[in-house]
Design brief:
- By secondary structure, this protein is an alpha/beta fold.
- It has one domain: Nucleoside phosphorylase domain (Rossmann fold).
- The protein has eight helices and ten strands.
- Strands 1, 2, 3, 4, 5, 6, 7, 8, 9 and 10 form a ten-stranded mixed sheet that branches.
- Strand 3 and strand 4 form a beta hairpin.
- Helix 1 crosses helix 7, helix 2 runs parallel beside helix 5 and helix 4 crosses helix 7.
- It is globular.
Length: 252
């Protein structure tokens, strides 16, 4: 399969983690975003640090489709969970992504998609790697936990661990519009606690590094490549994260 493996990550620490499994990666400004370009095996790799929110993620995804010739697109990073029984570090591969704002609109004179089912073959490639689990991702630009509001769930979107992020529905919708295989990989970092940023910083180290390795292996399986071409990347990722992640977690 020809094309580029494209990753959309909201924050710098997320982009660095997943770029670390590539080789020859160069970081450069790309419009208002930051672009990390290199290779995985002989396949081009492009990681876009889009910034937080659905608008930023949708714009970055559309730009990737227009200029980077994506073979697949992955929304990658950390997410919260309103379910305290879901342990931090849990790696969620989205089966369904729900745009909560659109879901809440209800009766409209036109049909607007609000739920996106990830392509089965690409999703299964992620689930074949140890440590990942299938779940639901709610795209909801609000607090994970609030005294007055919680991300809504109903019988139509139950099952598996629950993750809440700000970008995945936008990536899914744009990729699906152009018939490009997409996946969402999110690592649970917190449950909306007051010390959320400290918890994110912890997850930004080892759990997010392993998530990047899962991404690498899943893409190898799906695209029919041999993952051995990136041997030695784990040590490189570890060195980069040890040097950088303590200084920056949620910075764009």
């Amino acid at each position: 399969m020809e094309g580029t493996v494209v990753v959309i990550a909201a924050h710098a620490f997320e982009a660095r983690a997943v770029a670390g499994v590539g080789r020859g990666v160069v970081k450069e400004p790309w419009g208002s975003w930051m672009l990390y370009r290199g290779e995985m095996w002989d396949i081009p790799l492009a990681v876009i640090r889009s910034g937080p929110g659905k608008v930023a993620a949708a714009a970055a995804t559309q730009a990737a489709i227009q200029y980077l010739d994506p073979a697949v697109i992955v929304s990658f990073g950390v997410a919260g969970s309103p379910d305290s029984s879901t342990e931090t570090g849990t790696m969620v591969i989205a089966r369904t992504v729900v745009d909560v704002a659109l879901e809440e609109l209800g009766d409209l004179p036109v049909e607007i998609p609000s739920r996106f089912e990830s392509p089965t073959a690409f999703r299964d490639a992620f689930l074949s790697v140890p440590g990942s689990t299938e779940g639901l991702v709610l795209c909801w630009e609000g607090q994970v936990v609030s005294p007055s509001r919680r991300p809504p769930t109903d019988d139509g979107i139950q099952g598996g661990p629950l993750a809440v992020d700000w970008e995945s529905a936008a990536v899914a919708q744009v990729a699906q519009m152009w018939n490009i295989p997409w996946a969402v990989l999110k690592v649970i970092s917190d449950h909306g606690e007051e010390d959320r940023l400290r918890r994110v910083a912890v997850v930004a180290r080892r759990p997010l590094q392993w998530a990047a390795e899962v991404f690498r292996r899943a893409c190898a399986a799906y695209l029919g490549e041999k993952p051995g071409g990136a041997e030695g990347q784990d040590e490189k990722v570890t060195r980069r994260e040890d040097q950088g992640e303590d200084r920056e977690t949620s910075a764009g």
